[in-house]
Design goal:
heterodimer, A: 274 residues, 2 domains, B: mainly alpha, 14 helices
Chain lengths: 274, 300
């Protein structure tokens, strides 16, 4: 049994090594965010005390309060709109049959592979023509559409697996398709919907390219754009930059820690196998 | 009564409420067509012109596409992207497999903890990843610190400022983001392999390498396909990391198509060419996705 004990020790040694690799870069940011600005520098260091005021400074002087506000507005609208729209579409794709159903579904699948880089140029000129660049709409509309593609794909799997018996029983009891969806299928589909919500939340919160192209005023900047801007303006203000980075990452990390399984499940489903 | 109604209903199903389906799809489809399908078509249209974004565009046909092959400043970014796929896809998958092999030999306690931590880099915004890795590669940063600590001070470098090192340096940041995802996928896969198969292989005198070739690798084929698709698509789309660490530099040594789209369209006014790069990137992503799924199916 010596070899099995050796195996065990080796396994944990490898695992711990990878845990260190995954965590050290993150710890570097957190420890710098807690250091005084005189002490802070790129690299791993023990913080010289707990300088929480870095976060207050980032919030006020770094405008992160305003950036977070923009991010919250955009994210809440995109998540709500994308969830409702894709739930409705997926309901039709998963439970109804009508001419063109599979062609239409493949059109949505296309949206899972098309990179944003192929859309952002016309979107910019279209929005400029409509006078809506540098508004939240310019961030909300394209991101809703991109999330709807994933959401429809994801929720269709749930609806096509949902029990036909329950649906039919409800129908015979006089429920129309609308109330079957919202009163029967949506409540029992909470796990699938939770996954959709947390994944859409993360994608929208972390989005950078679209915000970079569309937003020009400081008040409309979302947190990732704000952080990039801050890095360009105050690259010597290391502690503040680290505090800003923590503020950008923290909401997603918290949601991730709470909904860890749903998160991983949703992200791994992104590879379409049809 | 109810039974008969149900039977009648069954006969009508799977038609269900038919045309009503269009109504449920309409809102999503409307947003999707307006924000994805139409812009995609417009991109194709733009790519056939020479346009600086301001003055009148001139028709150039497929010239912007032939330039993707003939112009070194356009061919370069596509080659860089393929090099980066080694770091974004191949390395994470290899590391993930290594771990899967190690894990397949014993039952691991605290699996949830390991999974949570290893997956963590995947949920961080690329902007944060970029800040983190700029610091790691800074002159006084973590990497140079570590090299000095182990007596390899002679190897310290300005990682992101070097023509030859910048591309692999950015690549390693991408490996760091992706390896956890691959590991989690493969860990889940390895857990489903019946332990008897490993025991049987061991009874046959298989060493770790043969065990890997004969048991682990075939069992993980579907997970490898998923990991390859996810990492390749994410890697080719990745604009944020390049833009925020090197901005394509030094020179053009780390320029990738995703960066080139932004750079040309919004910084130097070559909108038609930028659109062609965007469409070229889309085609490349589609092609590689198809190749991956073919490779997997071909072996089943």
């Amino acid at each position: 049994m010596i070899s099995s004990r050796l195996d065990r020790a080796l396994t944990y040694a490898v695992l711990v090594l990878f845990v260190v690799v995954a965590l050290v870069p993150v710890l570097q940011i957190v420890s710098t965010a807690l250091s005084s600005n005189e002490h802070a520098q790129p690299g791993l260091l023990l913080p010289d005390g707990l300088h929480w005021h870095n976060f207050v400074d980032a919030w006020r002087r770094g405008h992160f309060g305003s950036y977070l506000r923009s991010s919250v507005i955009v994210t809440v609208v995109v998540v709500a709109a994308a969830t409702v729209l894709s739930t409705m579409a997926a309901y039709a794709f998963g439970t109804m049959r009508f001419p063109g159903v599979s062609v239409l579904f493949y059109v949505f699948l296309l949206g899972l592979t098309v990179p944003e880089e192929a859309l952002v140029i016309p979107l910019y000129y279209d929005f400029r023509g409509l006078g809506i660049t540098d508004t939240y709409w310019a961030l909300i509309l394209p991101q809703t559409a991109q999330s709807v593609a994933f959401g429809t794909y994801w929720m269709r799997t749930y609806f096509s697996r949902s029990s036909r018996e329950i649906t039919e029983a409800a129908r015979i009891d006089g429920a129309n398709s609308w109330s079957v969806l919202w009163r029967v299928l949506v409540p029992s589909g909470r796990p699938a919907i939770t996954t959709l919500v947390v994944i859409t939340f993360m994608w929208t919160w972390n989005e950078f390219l679209l915000a970079l192209v569309m937003v020009s005023s400081d008040a409309r900047r979302t947190v990732p754009l704000g952080l990039a801007f801050f890095q360009g303006q105050h690259s010597s203000d290391v502690a503040l930059l680290a505090a800003g980075a923590v503020l950008v990452a923290l909401p997603v990390v918290i949601v991730y820690l709470v909904f860890q399984r749903r998160f991983i499940e949703g992200m791994l489903s992104g590879a379409v196998k049809e | 009564m109810a039974n008969r109604a149900r039977a009648a209903y069954r006969r009508r199903a799977p038609g269900e409420p038919r045309a009503l389906g269009y109504l449920y799809i309409a809102p999503a489809l409307l947003v999707f067509v307006a924000m994805v399908i139409v812009p995609l078509g417009q991109s194709v249209w733009y790519s056939l012109f020479n346009w600086d974004g301001l003055s009148v565009a001139t028709w150039v046909g497929v010239d912007n596409y032939t330039a993707l092959f003939s112009d070194p400043t356009l061919r370069g970014p596509f080659l860089h992207a393929l090099v980066l796929l080694v770091f974004y896809a191949l390395l994470p998958i290899s590391l993930g497999l290594l771990l899967a092999v190690v894990m397949s030999r014993v039952r691991v306690r605290g699996l949830t903890f390991f999974r949570t931590v290893l997956f963590l880099p995947q949920v961080l915004a690329m902007v944060v990843v970029a800040v983190t890795w700029r610091w790691i590669y800074a002159p006084t940063g973590l990497l140079n610190q570590a090299l000095r600590l182990v007596g390899l001070g002679g190897l310290t470098a300005s990682w992101l400022g070097s023509f030859s090192l910048a591309l692999p340096a950015v690549g390693v940041a991408g490996t760091w983001v992706g390896f956890g995802l691959c590991m989690v996928l493969f860990l889940a896969g390895v857990q489903t392999v019946p332990r008897e198969r490993y025991e049987a292989a061991r009874l046959d005198g298989a060493g770790p390498w043969q065990e890997f070739r004969a048991v682990t690798l075939p069992a993980l084929r579907p997970q490898i396909a998923v990991a390859a698709t996810l990492t390749i698509v994410a890697g080719l789309r990745n604009f944020d990391l390049i833009y925020l660490t090197t901005a394509g530099g030094p020179g053009t040594s780390t320029a990738v198509p995703a960066y080139e789209v932004y750079h040309r369209a919004f910084e130097i006014g070559q909108v038609g060419s930028a659109a062609a790069v965007g469409i070229g990137l889309t085609v490349l992503i589609f092609a590689l996705t198809v190749v991956v799924s073919r490779l997997v199916e071909g072996h089943e």
